[in-house]
Structures are given as C-alpha cells and as structure tokens.
Predict the structure.
Amino acid sequence: MEQCRDQTRFSRNYTSDVYSRTQSVAYAHQMSTIPKIRAQLPLKSPSKHYGFCDAEIPPKKCARYRQEASEERAQQLILIRSEEVTLLALWNSAGLETNFSLLAKHIRRYGSNAAGNCMEYSILLYDDLSHQLGPGDFQDIVKFESGDHVFNVVNQPKGTDGTYPKHFSDWDERALIVDGWLNVCCPAREYPERWRAQMHKWAARDLKLGLDGISPLDPTWLNLVDESEKISAPFRELLW
C-alpha cells in the first residue's frame, strides 16, 4: 500500500518522462537494491544495539545483539575499515580517484562475516547504483557536517564548494535519498519525515545508537536532518 501511495504522489508531481525515470530508480532500488545491499552486511551495523547489558535485550533479539555478538561485529568492522584506510591511502598517494567498485568488492569478500555502518552501506550502494542509473542521472555520497552519518544522493546538484541545500525542502524535485543504514529510499524532500519515523520506530524497540548508546530521539541526533549542513562527503577524510 505504501508503494502505491508513493506512486500516486509521483504521478501528480512529475511529468511522465521524469516520473518514468524516477520511478525506475526509486522503486526498483527501494524494493531490490537496498535489501540486496543489506544482505551483503549480514552482521549488520555495530552502531545499533540494545545497550550494554544482555539482560536488556529482547529475548528474540538476543542471538544477534548479545554482548559477544556485538563485540564480534565491532571487531569485524575494525578489520574492514582498516583495509579501507589502506586502499584509500594508496590511491591518495598516487593521486587516484576513489574506486568504489574495489572498496565494495573488498567488503563483499567478508561474506557472512561482513559488518558495516552507514559508510559501508554507502560504498556498496554507490557501486550498485553506478550500474543501475540511467543516462543523465548522477549520484554522490553526502554527509551531515555536524553529525556522524553519510547517505547516497541521486540527481541533486551541489555547489562548487561541495555543499548542498541545508533544508531538504529546497532540494530538486527529482532528487532521491538512498540510505541503506536507515533502510529508506525516497524523494529527498520526504527524507526528514522518513528519518524521524525510523528514529521513533527504533526508539519504540528500545534500540540505542553509537558507542555512547544514545536514544534515537535524542534531540541532537533527531534534528540532524534539519539543522546540520549537508556536504559532499570528503571520502578519504571520513575513514581517518
């Protein structure tokens, strides 16, 4: 039903040619690319957890989120991230562009032991989208300047200084957000609503975020989507 409502909204707001292209990107990827990418990180994200005491974990979630499993995820991410840093350092010293395909291949080779946060989701999505976007489409990885989160953006022009409009209401009507960590693909103008909805959903499940175990409804985190500047991710710097 949600997909049908989204398609109706698109049909009202977009011309037929833009709708056709946007639909193929947004909904094909919402229904297939994000689940496919999430399946490539079977240990999921170390940044989401139920706190630091196994007794606080819902019984049906204990196998994945118990302390031992959480430590395993964190260790796997350290291994993955250290190799990413090595590759990026080599490319940087040689003056080469970031090779997202090779980074994605590096993550995938961990198979059932692959874990990742928003950065790894973005790498995998960038590689997948590069093979899926149509002529005239373009993408980027964007960061909240004042917060620890990156996500993929499709069809939103950026300024010459690498910045994007601060408020998503000012983004291009064709622009899309594809956020694997948040498990959301939507028009950019709808992203704040989807961000908040997911945070409320996680809070209702008593999930905590990050090393500090903050609530998804912590105002500093919840309001990032509106209050932070948005910048093209300086990718080599993100991993240092």
